[in-house]
Amino acid sequence: MSRNPRSKSKSQGSDNSATTKRSSSIYENWFSLWRQRHIQALFTSFTKMKRAPLATMLTVFVIGISLALPSLLLVLLRNAQAISSGWANSTQISLFIKMNEPDQSVQQLINQLQADPDIASVNYISPTQGLQQFEGASGFSNLESALPNNPLPAVLEIKPAPNIQTPQAVQQLVNQLQQLPQADVVQLDMQWVNRLFAMLNFAKHAVFGLAVLLGLGVVLIIGNTIRLATQNNRDEIEIMKLIGATNAFVRRPFLYTGILYGLAGGIVAWIVVEILFLSLNGPIANLAQAYQTSLSLKGLGFSGTLLLWLFAAGLGLTGAWLVVSRYLNVTRAD
Amino acid sequence: MIEFDNVSKRYPNGHDALKQVSFHIGKGEMAFLTGHSGAGKSTLLKMITVIEKPTTGRVFVNGHNLSQFSSWRVPQLRRSIGVIFQNPNLLDEYTVFENVALPLVIAGYRYQEIGRRVRAALDKVNLLNKEKYYPAALSGGEQQRVGIARAVVHKPAVLLADEPTGNLDPQLSAEIMYLFEQFNQVGVSILIASHDLALIGRLQHRIMTLHQGCMVSTGVRIDYEQESTQQE
User: Fold this and answer.
1) pTM, entire model
2) CB-based contact A239 B91, cutoff 8 Å
3) In angstroms, rounded to a whole number, what is the distance separating the alpha carbons of residues A179 and A186?
4) Last residue within a domain, chosen from A140, A164, A189
5) Chain A positions in Cβ-Cβ contact with residue B111 (cut-off 8 Å)
6) For residue A307, which phi and psi values (nearest 5 degrees)?
7) Which CATH superfamily is domain B2-80+156-231 in?
8) A236-249 per-position pLDDT tens digit
9) Which of A276, B192, B195, B209 is the most buried (most CB within 10 A)?
């Protein structure tokens, strides 16, 4: 009962619907029409994907695995970089002081180095202390009395400040220390850190290249899937265009299909990465315990996950856009 | 409403589908287009919906010169025309309701408005009780009526039909024609291509005849036709 008068009043106004629409806020109408069209397109593409669940699942898994591989490698790389940057920080520089350098000069050097902002700490080891340490470590006792005079030089153990992180910066500090008049030899066991950094740098480029390649693969997979969909819906597209659908209207559901494929693939990739990390965390913890350090892997995290999904959806949109635009341009010539 | 001015169409393979065709269909007029298959009926209808473009000559629909029509305005034009095909061309994956709603969805009508108009159109073709059916579950005549409902649901000023009764028995064909006459009575201009001479001969409407691409007869209102071309 209550519906009747309402529909009646609407039917009276419907003849002037164009004018009444225009008289109310144009922006509001435009926006709600835009929203309606997009919800519609999203719904259309969703129902179409649901109609062929097996094909959809297969495509989604292919995309998911293609995305999981580079994501996994990127996350591992990020972990490796995080761990190794800690190692670069723990670098220690040994400054051997010239033999027979007067104590006053050595004390002056220590003060000078401690004031240096690039240096975190300076630890002085006198020749006597050095010899005691050597005795303790080697097991030879009474070396001090056996030797006519102490052959060991005084050593300063220097730790670089936290802002000195890259191998280049550490090397520069070493060169500066080498210039000091009291310094005999400055030693830095950095070669392995250097090599590690070079390897990580190489790995970063390799993983990046792989990610680009697999991303391109995802664009092609989605593009091909959408191309098949346009061919299966050829009659529908033709009929819709014949009754006045714009290219944008025809294109929209396909673009949403691309986005949905990408997003679903991204979610699969996320699940794969998280499962692998959960299964890796146990062995890694055991390994770390064996080395008596605490080491835990960091997964994708919130921002990483979000980025992966956005990136995947973007790839889907790109693939769909490329194919559908081309398809519509070809059919326009009819 | 529809005017052809010396329109010729030659396909890329050299076939002349239409040769210097001129005619005029006024507002609210109903006319039949007849001729053997291959005489150019379909080509003529396709030009009105800008599926084909004339090689020479000009086509006017609703006052628009289609030869100067830019492609982005074509959808807008098509929304002011209802088209009915020999094969109803329904979308099998959609229900009757959704099929009929398609032109409204494309034009961006609101949902409440869509429901009201679709039911009004289905009521006119007597299929209100089948709105939830899929096309495959309907008979040929019913499918054609769904196609008609889809063509008129957005109240177009012009209705085109290409052999709408080609697949139907005489009884159903007569019913369909009666439907068209009803639409014509409320002011819709209608052009129907048909070779069912027995049927259209019984109806009191203008009959235009194409023969091998030439318009050999523009029907009863030749005087009106000449007047309008002289005014040009």
Assistant:
1) 0.72
2) yes
3) 10
4) A189
5) 36
6) -65, -40
7) P-loop containing nucleotide triphosphate hydrolases (3.40.50.300)
8) 888 888 888 888 89
9) B192
